[in-house]
Design a protein that fits this description.
The structure is a single chain. The protein is of the alpha/beta class. Helices cover 37% and strands 19% of the residues. It has two domains: 274 residues, Aldehyde Dehydrogenase, Chain A, domain 1 (3-Layer(aba) Sandwich), CATH 3.40.605.10; 128 residues, Aldehyde Dehydrogenase, Chain A, domain 2, CATH 3.40.309.10. The strands form five sheets. It has a six-stranded mixed β-sheet, with helices on both faces. A three-stranded mixed β-sheet has the order 1-5-4, covered by helices on one side. A hairpin with a 4-residue loop joins strand 4 and strand 5.
């Protein structure tokens, strides 16, 4: 969320909202710039929604909810299978938006789309995922069963670093469960979300089930405070996650707010140094380091330190940095000038904080774009098992540098990396977007009915 506002230039494409199954031009008179990070030039102007425009999207979602909730599970699954096929068929187009507005290289952008598709595929199994329990003859003539029902209108607020994958993490299980959805994507790279909305519409998702509103804090607060929004999912920085969770819950909403992370990679003396160095460089510099799961700290234990440092130093200069749409490029630019300047400041301040700069990414960078150049690792299974047993974190990788869980497990950290009690996607995602109901039923013979003021007994 940014406070930078400006008039929409005529030379750039307008990026509109998506409400009620169609594109809707903004009416607030405010917009924000969207850049190509590889050139530093503005390519788009995204509409910034007013509170009234957010209310329009919520109203469309609310109107669509009764019909969508009543849609059979088999029909919802059929539509989701079509969504999956369209997303797969158009994966190159989706990836193109990511490269153009985020700066990801093609392989990384396609990888993001693929990981998002895994959650859509998981959601296609919704008839099985929503199965409840049934107990016959819990008491004489009485049966008890449990069901899970959708919440209603739910909202998602997503970050700039995964403009396709994280929205899929949210809306796929949400709409599969029978909810309707209002997405507020990052204003820095919003085009992918509108394109996904078009594909959802083409797949047969009814109008109003999925909506997109762009904007800044005005739009976010409108979602957090709207009485018809029942739940909020968020991924972003820790300070903002804390604000989202506090504001949403104070307005009576269910909330899962996934925050920033500090990912430590522990390299033990018995680790394969070359493999560990490959993993550290891949996990630290992939997507220009703009991942919440990027390795930000390598902890080398004992005599592993010196050879590991040398191995990493040897690899970094070989990374090819450049525009994400150029063949052979391995690392693209940072998303904005402000992000680039922040990273440069870390390098500048490092010596004063006691660090030694071994490779300086400020050297030899592209002058036009926003460029800066570029888990536990062991062979001892017993040590690795003890590490995962003791580690106070929500996700642990053993010889895996970026341990993002597969779709049928859930993603999220501990401590200040999560505000709320349920992680995103997987089984916990289904629980987040539904609420349980227990039904106790009896079909007695009317002839046996009588008044009984005692507390119900089961024996």
């Amino acid at each position: 969320m940014t406070d930078t506002l400006q008039e929409a230039p005529t030379a750039v494409k307008p990026i509109n909202h998506w409400i009620g199954g169609m594109p809707v031009a903004g009416k607030s008179g405010r917009s924000g710039p969207v850049y190509n990070p590889a050139t530093g030039r503005q390519t788009g102007a995204v509409d910034f929604a007013s509170a009234e425009e957010v209310a329009e999207a919520v109203a469309a979602a609310k109107a669509a909810f009764p019909g969508w909730r009543a849609t059979s599970l088999s029909r919802r699954a059929e539509i989701l299978f079509r969504v999956r096929e369209l997303f797969h068929q158009h994966r190159e187009d989706i990836a193109g938006f990511l490269t153009a507005e985020h700066g990801k290289v093609r392989s990384d952008a396609l990888g993001e789309v693929a990981r998002g598709l895994e959650i859509v595929e998981f959601a296609c199994g919704i008839p099985h995922l929503l199965k409840g329990g049934y107990t016959e003859q819990a008491s004489t003539g009485i049966d008890v069963y449990s069901i899970r029902q959708p919440l209603g209108v739910v909202g998602g607020i997503t970050p700039f670093n995964f403009p396709a994958m994280v929205p899929m993490w949210m809306f796929a299980p949400a709409i599969a469960c029978g909810n309707t959805f209002v997405l507020k994507p990052s204003e820095k790279d919003p085009s992918a979300s509108v394109y996904l909305a078009q594909l959802l519409h083409e797949a047969g998702v009814p109008d109003g089930v999925f909506n997109v509103v762009h904007g800044d804090k005005v739009a976010v607060d409108a979602l957090l405070e709207h009485p018809d929004v029942t739940a909020i999912s968020f991924v972003g920085s820790t300070p903002v996650a804390r604000y989202i969770y506090t504001t949403a819950t104070s307005h009576g909403k269910r909330c899962q707010a996934l925050a920033g992370a500090k990912n430590h990679m522990v390299v033990l003396p018995d680790a394969d140094i070359d493999m560990a160095a490959d993993a550290a460089v891949s996990a630290g510099y992939g997507s220009a380091g703009e991942r919440c799961m990027a390795i930000s700290m390598v902890v080398a234990v004992g005599h592993a330190a010196e050879p590991l440092i040398e191995a990493i130093k040897e690899r970094i200069p070989k990374i090819k940095v450049g525009p994400g749409d150029e063949a052979g490029v391995e690392m693209g630019p940072l998303i904005t000038r402000e992000h680039r300047d922040r990273v440069v400041s870390y390098i500048e301040n490092a010596p004063a904080e006691g660090a030694k700069v071994l490779v300086d990414g400020r050297e030899g960078t592209n002058g036009e774009g926003f460029f800066v150049s570029t888990a536990i690792f062991t062979r001892d299974g017993g040590v690795a098992r003890q590490f995962q047993f003791d580690a106070q974190s929500g996700m642990v990788g053993v010889n895996v540098p970026i341990p993002v869980p597969v779709a049928y497990y859930s993603f999220g950290g501990w401590k200040n990396s999560l505000f709320g009690d349920l992680h995103i996607y997987g089984p916990e995602g289904i629980s987040f977007y539904t609420r349980g109901k227990v039904v106790t039923s009896r079909w007695p013979d009317p002839a046996t009915s009588q008044v009984d003021l005692g507390f119900p007994q089961t024996r």
